[in-house]
Amino acid sequence: MADERNNEIEETKLPGVNGPITGWLDGHTILVGLMAYPIRHTMSPTMHNNAFAKLGLNGAYLCFEIDSEKLPGAIDAIRTLDMRGSNVSMPNKKKVIPYLDKLDKTSQMCDAVNTIVNEHGSFDRHHQEVQLLR
User: Fold this and answer.
1) Which of 3, 82, 86, 129 is buried most deeply by CB count within 10 Å?
2) Start-to-end CA span in the chain (Å)
């Protein structure tokens, strides 16, 4: 199996990690994340990074322990770092809304955001998961 750069992808041999790994992080790596508090219990990075590798996508998914006080700075950081976006979990699903640019209909109905998508510096608010790297 080859990645998007035609590099061969090797199966992992790490305990608890299944699937291929690509092994690259470079200036083209697309960064996405998860903002929540607390966050240390989540398995999201394992799931997402394995999916990126299996699909041959040059992406990295990281967790950020963000409480209400850190939320404005975290939103600024998404723009500054040109992250592709972030999942949002408790307690931030409602609190993040004032810091974003647009709200989709589902988020309006729920008054909550699940995924922030950075579209060239403009943040769309999404309740449903969206494809971030294609």
Assistant:
1) 86
2) 18
**The two structure tokens encoding residue 33:** 């994340």
Residue 35 and residue 92: Cα distance in Å, rounded? 8
* Residue pLDDT, tens place only, 19-70: 555 556 788 889 999 999 999 899 999 899 888 888 878 899 999 999 999 9
The pLDDT score that the predictor gives to residue 19 is 54
Q: Are 55 and 2 in contact (CB under 8 A)?
A: no
Structural contact between residues 71 and 99, judged by C-beta atoms closer than 8 angstroms: yes
* DSSP 8-state assignment for residue 12: P
| 27 CB burial (10 A radius; 0-12, 13-18, 19+) | exposed
SS3 sequence of 85-111? EEEECCCHHHHCHHHCCEECHHHHHHC
Active site residues: 93
